Amino acid sequence: MISDSVPWKQECLKIAAKLAKRYNQKKWSERSLFTLEKEVFLGLFALRKLMESNKVTDAIKNTKVELAIYPANDKPITLLNQHKFPELYDLYAGQKESISYWDICNQFIHSSIFAPFVPAGKSLVGFYIASDRAKKKKLYYIQLKVLVEMLESVGNNYPKHIELTFNEKTKEYKVSSA
Fold first, then answer.
1. pLDDT at position 121 over 80
2. How do residues 102-113 score in pLDDT, each as one tens digit?
3. Where do the domains of the chain lie?
4. Could you tell me which of 11, 16, 148, 154 has the fewest CB atoms within 10 Å of its CB?
């Protein structure tokens, strides 16, 4: 549980700024890809922990963004072939799906497929992801810009009002914040 959200939110803003600079990056080494992956995962872990700890408003927790999704084709998707994801999904049959910040965090944190999209080796524009659960059905694509906006919105979000309601059935408090 996070007690002081300020350093976590500052970290979200720092990571958002670092990721935004990736738009202009032209050279991609193994080291820079490692650093990118570390930034993304740390940022989304922080985002999820802040939501879990009720350190952001309900509006942020309930925010949904539209992502592209691609259906899995008939080929089995396994540990040994998931790195060949372009052959395993119909990348010409993309559709849109609204997905919550929480679910996006989970897709990354539990990802079996994580692939930065750098067309023609130029600038990073987004990520293909699929969690261990989702990979059998669909592949998500999230634009870098959306990820940066998520981190910025959480990093700048400070609830002004918190309400606790005790649930007799679960013997736990429900926290609402605005």
1. no
2. 999 999 999 999
3. 6-177
4. 11
Distance CA 89, CA 69 (A): 10
Please give the model's pTM, rounded to 2 decimal places.
0.92
Name the nearest CA neighbour of 140 among 85, 178, 63, 84.
85
Contact assessment for residue 146 and residue 125, using Cβ atoms and an 8 Å cutoff:
no
102 by DSSP, 3-state: which? helix
Contact call for residues 50 and 5 (beta carbons, < 8 A): yes
Identify whether the C-beta of residue 115 lies closer than 8 Å to the C-beta of residue 40: no
Q: Which two tokens stand for residue 43?
A: 């940022």
Are the CB atoms for 159 and 61 separated by under 8 Å?
A: no
Which H helix or E strand runs over 164? strand 162-167
Q: What is the Cα–Cα distance from 57 to 158, expressed in whole angstroms?
A: 7
